[in-house]
Amino acid sequence: MRFASGAEPKVMSSSNGQASETSPLLPKVLSENNGELIAPTFDPGAGLAPEGADAFYERDEEEIGNQQDANGGGDDLERQRSNDSSRLKQFQGDLELQKKMKYFLPAVAIGVFLASADQTIIVTSSPKIGTDLHALNNTSWIATAYFLTLTSFQPLYGKLSDIFGRKPCLLFAYVVFGLGCLFCGLSRNMTELIASRAFAGIGGGGMVTVVSIILSDTVPLRERGKWQGYINIIFASGSAAGAPLGGILADSIGWRWSFLIQGPMCFIAFFAVLFAFKAPTRDHSHWAEKLKRVDFLGATFLVLAVFFMMLGLDRGSNVAWADKYTITALALCVPLAGIFLYVEMRVAAEPFAPGHIIFERSLVACYLVNFFAYGGWMATLFYVPLYLQAVLGFTATQAGVMLIPVIVCVVSGSLVGGFYMQRTGRYFKITVVSATTPVFALISIVLFLGVIQTTPLIRSIGIIVSLSICAFPHGVTVTTTLIGLIANAPPSSQAVVTACSYLFRSLGSVFGLSLASTVANASLRTYIARAIAEHPGAAPPDVDPAQLAAMIRQSLDTIAKLDPEFRAVVRQCFALASRNALACQVVFGSFAAVAVWGIREKALSR
Question: Region Disordered: start and end of each range (predicted)?
Fold first, then answer.
């Protein structure tokens, strides 16, 4: 018979001696080495493998060799064998380093714990810092400056660790972070403190990212999720310990020790990794030659684009979207991002983000799931405690205790996702379920925020149960999408895609929180102005209505001083504002549930 295209099917001899066919109607497979389209063989008796089976890597080298030798492709065969060898190494991990995991994990645990604790340690100490430095109005920049540089430099660590090595990059991150903390503790004014926090963020961006990359090098891909779960336990422990530790130190020996104590801890982490982690040398060339390989132009535009985007989003949600600095920052980030893409695609010899990483379907899908999932999660995690305190009258300590089961669920989800992938070798189905479930949990939270009329106790329990249901699949998604990225990326690019995943998580967190803050602040401003207009006697004689509205929005302590009747009205205003903010996150989370369908299933082992 003749095909519609007029092409005759080609009959080949497969490695098992059976006849196989190729046809223009069958899908082609793209070689990662030279971009050549290779038609996959088809055994009529075996059926077509699903798209996610990654049949290209399952093919026998002899069959590939027969095809390429027929075309005179001896060099292509060598490159293909090298690529297959890299994939096989990814499946197996580094057997020598696996024997030393009992030393490596405790060594890096110190740095992971410090990196996570540092993000929350200033939450309770910032009021004292602002008071001591006579700049209470600028305390938000203590956290913002750190987060800006942390996010901006995170994606650079992937390629830099390929060039200079994993261990040197991790040690560099420890040194920069430790010095930054030391400078913070010695700061004489708020300007010096903010600059020191920004410097520390450069190191903080690598302390978790490089550890994740090293784990991908070391453990078999099928077990990678389980080990990520262990790291997430350490990270969650640091986040949970940071806030109370910062408060205790600020109240006892002074806020400066919240930073100074991290210097010796970084010193310990540095030497623990130096002696416990014996990584193989990837490149024996001179450091000057390695320096020439760094894409400084691309790095500059990437850092600037991310920095201005983060700055614009943060300032827009906290100051005003019409503010000239907000508009300028957001206007600059777009052309800077465009220039970065041009440099990576047309100029850079060794780009930080090659085209096959930027535009590959599965990788983009994983990045988008991370972006939207983290956006919805962080905004929810911020506004639920605010609701518990402003509306239900919980103290900060009580609200924190209520979140303990939520943190447990996040960590448990990460571990369950890891063990599931180790047992089944699959990640697509569980990722679809885990990316979709939070949407329904978010809807439940919105209903408990005021749509469902019930007692405060039942409402608070309903909110926390719903948030826990949201937390568990979120923990699963964090782990499975990371494995999906590594499995779909070429083995030589796994460090870059891992670093980029952390970038999209951070960007999603800021974007989601900025969106929620904008909706909540606008709603609260409208509701409170209306409430004050309807209750003329609510404001004290020496406070005008506009000033009272500002005081209510800026401090929860003001609510407790209000007349009981008007206090109930104000609490309802906060309830409506919180509900509106989280209703937006339902839409945000829905985008993650849609994006997840773009991920391809790939084999995690042979």
Answer: 1-86
Cα dihedral 478, 497, 596, 462 in deg (nearest 10): 20
Residue 301 lies in a domain: no
pLDDT, position 336 = 92
Question: For position 541, what pLDDT does the model report?
Answer: 66
12: β partners? 20
> What's the burial of 281, exposed, middle or buried (CB within 10 Å: 0-12/13-18/19+)?
exposed
What's the distance, CA 326 to chain centroid?
A: 24
| Full domain range(s) for residue 227 | 95-281
CA–CA dist 376, 396 (Å, integer): 22
Structure tokens, 470: 């949201």
Measured between its terminal Cα atoms, the distance across the chain in Å is 37
CATH for 226: 1.20.1250.20
Residue 503 to residues 151, 208, 211, 457, 551, Cα–Cα distance (Å): 6, 12, 15, 38, 36
Task: Please state the pTM of the whole predicted model.
Answer: 0.75
Q: Per the domain annotation, does 384 fall within a domain?
A: yes
Residues 284-321: tens digit of each pLDDT = 677 778 788 888 888 888 888 888 887 888 788 767 78
Are 410 and 377 found together in one domain? Answer: yes
Confidence of residue 539 (pLDDT cuts 50, 70, 90): low
371 burial (CB, 10 Å; 0-12 / 13-18 / 19+) is buried
Burial class of residue 314, CB neighbours in 10 A (0-12, 13-18, 19+) = buried
d(CA 258, CA 246) in angstroms, rounded, equals 6
For the segment 402-429, what is each residue's pLDDT rounded down to a tens digit? 888 888 898 899 999 999 998 998 999 9
- Helix 190-218 to helix 494-534 angle, to the nearest 10 degrees? 140
Average pLDDT, the chain: 78
Shared domain for 54 and 141, answered yes or no, is: no
User: What's the one-letter identity of residue 594?
Assistant: V
- Mention every residue, 6+ apart, whose C-beta is less than 8 A from residue 82: 33
Alpha carbons 332 and 324: distance in angstroms, whole number? 12
CB 488 within 8 A of CB 602: yes
* Tens digits of residue pLDDT in 242-279: 777 887 888 788 889 989 999 899 999 999 888 888 76
Encoded tokens for 204:
């903080």
Give the separation between CA 23 and CA 41, rounded to whole angstroms.
9
Instruction: For residue 554, name the pLDDT band (cuts at 50, 70, 90).
Output: low
- How does DSSP classify residue 538? G
Domain stops at, among 232, 253, 281: 281
| Buried/exposed code over 1-32 (b: 16+ C-beta within 10 A; e: otherwise) | eeeeeeeeeeebebeeeeebebeeeeeebebb
* Higher pLDDT, residue 161 or 33: 161
3-class state of residue 283 by DSSP: coil
CB 566 within 8 A of CB 545: no
